[in-house]
Amino acid sequence: NAGVMQNPRHLVRRRGQEARLRCSPMKGHSHVYWYRQLPEEGLKFMVYLQKENIIDESGMPKERFSAEFPKEGPSILRIQQVVRGDSAAYFCASSRTGGNGYTFGSGTRLTVV
Amino acid sequence: ELKVEQNPLFLSMQEGKNYTIYCNYSTTSDRLYWYRQDPGKSLESLFVLLSNGAVKQEGRLMASLDTKARLSTLHITAAVHDLSATYFCAVDRGMYSGGGADGLTFGKGTHLIIQP
């Protein structure tokens, strides 16, 4: 009974490259959320998705960042033309409809060099 | 905009002592979450508080929720070194389904160090 699976665990990108972070929600969960955690900070909401729909992307930077949750496959958070300030831990969480909690993945730690 | 404020942000205490972490939030909500995070790790769910007056206990940790005061507390009893971690409170954003699973707004976290 796997939990929320994120990969890769660690990702190193050079400035200007693209980063793709993947998240498979827990079985039975249809809601996915992405958060960013800067060093020594709390988690900041980025985007809330359901299958094939972006419900709320109010926390996403307007440029370079995008997210999707296709009908088949994991949710993807994509960061184009990465900059040093994008270095952070990115966590994915999932929940089920009507549920009372969220399950978090182990996170992807992105380092931009 | 929903704000969640924790205090203290940093706490160093000795084993065996008691202490309380406070979490204030700025909008009406009856769902509050406490998480623990160890360095470099993910978030571990500690408590989900779903109604006014809710109190939950697990081991040396006890959490309570007062929705009228918009305040939750996490109380540590007779602290032990293994409880050293960062503790976050979070509140449902509740923007779409009246408090449903719409994602969380987190406090900045309380870095707790328990010394022998």
How much beta of chain B, percentage-wise? over 45%
Specify the overall morphology of chain A: globular
Largest sheet of chain B: 6 strands, mixed
Cα(first) to Cα(last) distance of chain A is 36 Å
Major sheet attributes of chain A: 7 strands, mixed
| Record field, number of beta strands of chain A | 11
Report low-confidence residues of chain B grouped into runs of 5 or more. Answer: none
Pair with the biggest interface: A-B, 27 and 25 residues
Mean pLDDT of chain A: 93
Strand content of chain A: over 45%
Q: Which whole number gives the mean pLDDT of chain B?
A: 90
Radius of gyration of chain A, whole Å: 13 Å
Rg over CA atoms of chain B:
14 Å
Q: Note the overall shape of chain B.
A: globular
- The count of strands of chain B amounts to 11
Write the layout of secondary structure elements.
The complex is a heterodimer of chains A (113) and B (116).
Chain A: E1 5-7, E2 10-13, E3 19-24, E4 31-37, E5 43-50, E6 53-56, E7 65-68, E8 75-79, E9 88-95, E10 103-104, E11 108-112
Chain B: E1 4-7, E2 10-14, E3 19-25, E4 32-37, E5 43-49, E6 55-58, E7 61-66, E8 71-76, E9 85-92, E10 104-106, E11 110-115
Parallel strand pairs in B: 2-11
Antiparallel strand pairs in B: 1-3, 3-8, 4-5, 4-9, 6-7, 7-8, 9-10, 9-11
Q: Which structural traits does this protein have?
A:
heterodimer, A: 113 residues, mainly beta, seven-stranded mixed beta sheet, four-stranded antiparallel beta sheet, 11 strands, 0% helix, globular, B: 116 residues, six-stranded mixed beta sheet, five-stranded antiparallel beta sheet, 53% strand
Verbal overview:
The complex is a heterodimer of chains A (113) and B (116). By secondary structure, chain A is mainly beta. Chain A is built from no helices and 11 strands. Chain A has strands at residues 5-7, 10-13, 19-24, 31-37, 43-50, 53-56, 65-68, 75-79, 88-95, 103-104, 108-112. The mean pLDDT of chain A is 93. The mean pLDDT of chain B is 90. Chain B is globular. In chain B, strand 4 (32-37) and strand 5 (43-49) form a beta hairpin. In chain B, strands 2, 4, 5, 9, 10 and 11 form a 6-stranded mixed beta sheet that branches. In chain B, strands 1-3-8-7-6 form a 5-stranded antiparallel beta sheet, with no helix packed on it. Classes of the chains: A mainly beta (113), B mainly beta (116). Chain A binds chain B through residues 31, 33, 35, 41-45, 48, 55-56, 91, 93, 95-107, 109, and chain B through 31, 33, 35, 40-43, 45, 48, 50, 88, 90, 93, 95-96, 100-109.
